[in-house]
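Why do we care about 3D structure at all? Because function follows from shape, and shape follows, mostly, from sequence. That is the central idea of this module. The next example makes it concrete: a single protein chain, its amino acid sequence, and then its structure expressed as tokens.
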Amino acid sequence: MGIGGSIFLIAIGAIFAFAVDVELGWLDLSVVGWVLMLAGLVGLIMTAWLWRGRRRTVVTSPVEQTRVVPAVRDDRVVEEYREVRRPGHPV
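And the structure:
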């Protein structure tokens, strides 16, 4: 139903329950208003409960970077691989 539909049902139900004063022989609009407000409240609670699962926080760890650093040893170039990590993060 959604939040908008639930609020709409609550508003229409409040209008029927509190603002409309019409006598119908077979239908009491006050009761209809209370039923609509209750249905809107249930819809609002259900929507909030279903959306609760969508708002989870994803925690990721930093990505380790590998880069090639040339090193000079005895007049020759040797490639070494070093891992670069953020300080304070475990291995």
